[in-house]
Amino acid sequence: MNRRDVVVGLGALVGTGALASGTGAFSAGEVSRQAKIDVVDDSDGLVGLVANEAIAGVRMDAGGELTISLGDDDPGVNVSSVYQFGAFVSDGGVEDITGDTFSVVRDGDPSDMSDGQNSLESAFAVVNQSTEDLSITIDFELNDNIGDTDGNTEYAFELQSSQDGSGTREGLATSPITGQLTAQLATGESIGLSFIINALDGTTADEISGSLSISATAV
Amino acid sequence: MERRKFVIGLGALASGSAAAVGTGAFTAAELDGRTANIGVVNDSNGLIGLEAGGSEYVTNNGGNGENELMIDFSSSGGGTGVNPNSTYQVGGLGDFDSNNINQVPGNPTTNPSVGDVAIDTTTPISGEYAFKVMNQTDSAKDIEVTYNANNEPFPDGTRLFLVAYYPEGNGDSEQEEGLAIGDVANSSNDKAANIIFDDDQQYSASIASGKQFYVTILVDVGGASTNTDLGGELTVRAGSHDEFTNADD
Question: What are the structural domain ranges in chain A?
Answer without folding.
Answer: 42-218
